[in-house]
Amino acid sequence: MIKKKELLPILVAQGTIYPEGRVQSVLIKGIKADQDILQLPTEKLQNNSEVVLAVIGSNMAGNNHLDSGDYVTLRWRDVNGTFDAIDIQIAGIFKTNTPSVDNGIVWISLDNLQDMLKTPGEATLLVKSKEDDKPVNIEGWNFKGHDFLLADMDNIIKSKNAGGAIFWFILLLLAMLAIFDTQVLSIFRRQKEIGTYIALGMTKKQVVGLFTVEGAFHSILAVLVGAVYGIPLFIWQSKVGITLPVEGEDYGLAMAETLFPAYSLGLIAGTILIVVITTIIVSYLPSRKISKMKPTEALRGKLQ
Q1: Which of 190, 234, 238, 227 has its CA nearest to residue 210?
Q2: pLDDT in tens, 2-29
Q3: Residue 53 contacts residue 45 (beta carbons within 8 Å)
Q4: What's the mean pLDDT in 276-303?
Q5: In contact, 184 and 287? CB cutoff 8 Å
Q6: Stretch 249-253: mean pLDDT
Q7: Helix 204-240 to helix 191-199 angle, to the nearest 10 degrees?
Q8: CA-derived radius of gyration, the chain
Q9: Are 183 and 286 in contact (CB under 8 A)?
Q10: CA-CA distance, 38 to 214, in Å (whole number)?
Q11: What pLDDT is recorded for position 71?
């Protein structure tokens, strides 16, 4: 499977680099230079000279003031417990939104790291191609799928969804309060009209239903008006995205610089349905005041 490039062996070891005389603990990861499973510029590790080449992430390079072509001392300990050190050359710097391949990691050729650790033919990790996430039965390999590896990110998303739901509920309560106040004011200002309806033979239940339906149509009108500016705005956002002022890797999160929102049909339809139903309920509550009105008093413009 490794020869077919269906599996990628990675050897991991602890080490130390000394940029500008400082001490920085790192993870040394050996990877095949000709691999194409991970989106890393490992082709820059191909070298015929005796210099050991390395590639690092942009965040790692920024924190340690390293640039392409720089040399830095790397120290490690092999399987026999012997310390050794060499000067490695930074062959390339890549930019990624995945901190787990950037922060505190130095990527070198797998063959070089195996020679340095005196562990020929060994690897710490076996990475499977993303085209097939099915477990592979290999003795000694504890397969971990996306559900396990992305559990932390899934938990963060769930917690953010809970916080967003609370914020959305608060906004919905404010909208309900505004609708309630509007309906109360409408009933107060239209007392004579209500009295006329009752005097002409409409029952109080019919008048309550009339005001409730009126509030429901106001919600539908609000949906149509909101769609006039909302649909172009959503289409524009889905193409341009939302650029954040900070980078996710600064906080240890795998997050792109620009987020592209996705609005499903179920989300839009569900939101519209909730708003319409809520408006109908809130419109009905103040309309119950009509049931206490007397036609004569209503015609005079007075409420009991």
Answers
A1: 190
A2: 888 888 999 999 999 999 888 999 999 9
A3: yes
A4: 73
A5: no
A6: 57
A7: 130
A8: 33
A9: yes
A10: 59
A11: 93
- Mean pLDDT, rounded, of the chain: 84
User: What are the phi and psi torsion angles at 26 (to 5°)?
Assistant: -140, 165
E strand residue ranges, the chain? 7-17, 24-31, 52-57, 71-77, 83-94, 105-109, 125-128, 242-243, 258-259
- Entry pTM: 0.64
Are 218 and 210 in contact by the 8 Å Cβ rule? The answer is no
Q: Express each pLDDT in 66-89 by its tens digit.
A: 999 999 999 999 999 999 999 999
Instruction: Scan for tokens 């080490």, then name that residue.
Output: 15
> In terms of Cα–Cα distance, which of 182, 183, 205 is closest to 286?
183
The whole-angstrom separation of Cα 163 and Cα 104 is 32
Q: What structural domains and CATH numbers belong to the chain?
A: 7-128 (2.40.70), 153-299 (no CATH)
Average pLDDT over every residue of 180-207: 80
- Count of beta carbons in the 10 Å neighbourhood of residue 175: 16
pLDDT band at 173 (very low <50, low <70, confident <90, very high): confident
- Residue 280 β-bridge partners: none
- Residue 56 pairs in a beta bridge with 93
d(CA 191, CA 239): 50
